[in-house]
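Each record in this resource describes a single protein on a pair of labelled lines. An example record follows, reproduced without changes.
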Amino acid sequence: MTDLELEGLPQGNHPTMDDYAALFLNDVPLLDVRAPVEFKLGAFPNAVNIPLMTDVEREAVGIEYKEQGQDAAILLGAKLVTPDDRKQRQQAWAEFFSGCGNNLVDQSEGIHSDNKTPQKWGGVLYCFRGGLRSQISQQWLIDETDIQYPRVEGGYKALRRFLIDTIERISKDMPMIILGGRTGSGKTRLLKQLDNSIDLEGLANHRGSAFGPTATPQPTQINFENALAIELLKKEAAGHKVIVIEDEARNVGSVGLPPCLHEAMQNSPLVMLEVSEEERNKVSIDEYILDTQESFNDVYGEEQGELELSKHLLGSLDKIKKRLGGVRYEQAREQMQIAIDNRKESGSTTGFIPVVNALLVEYYDPMYDYQSANKHDRVCFKGSYDEALDYLKNNKTISK
């Protein structure tokens, strides 16, 4: 290649970061320079995607690499990414790092650099494997800012592997207490009062039933697992000796629990919430109607949000039509429509009590009893909401 063709390619060794735990424990901002299609498939909570190449550019360069080799691929990339494109991306990256702060080096020993001049970085960058794309991005940043920002050693692939291993290791090593109870018992609310709990439904953005979807989509399977691993890592780093998790099936909506975690949950002691029907009706209306209404309002505005909630509630009933049976389904749908209309006219939610109570007692409770039939020997405590909360707050360790 000529000197002109080499312009913008990595010159010398640039700093790398391999302390993956520190990146996640400290919520370090991550600049993901992969193509948008890669980012969409899987990413990390603190990552922002400002790609080196668009999807079209990446595909063309990838084909060239396979057919003609690296040098030809680099030349094609240089042709596809115009000087104006390059300048825009450099400026976008520089703006990203300028807003990151300067605390990373103080928190981690994982940065390796040949530069003897002390520097501080508030974020790191990565591509898929930590190779040429992230090295080129580093060089472009040096050209723009005269600062050597570190890249993640091994890139996205290494970070992802680290998080998968984290789930497997902590699922095996850290004891768990599983919080069970009938639908509407307030399990999620109780979890939020414990500093050693993990809210799987919150991470999955789904309440775990036919009525569980919210106004926003669930994360991808990979993103759910990444967020879960980071939560587990943070609980471990905080010194917790036991984790409290809600009793869940293998799937929470469209995402699945990692098999190692689910297996560990099935072999962990259970704390069972025992709550009155009246309280369960109230909690169910609060969570599945009022909270869901709020989520729709946030996305669509109040007027459209009300219409979306109505579609959501009736659509959720449709999902369980076969299991309810024709007569029960028609009764439930009629009651639900009346309750929706009454709330629209008066603002009252009392009209939901009959349909909610019927669904809890006639539909969800029998399923719960069936699923709980083989769990009795794991129950270590039963009690009311306040009793269970007190028990869990005062049992910070448990033998696995």
In short: The chain has a mean pLDDT of 89.
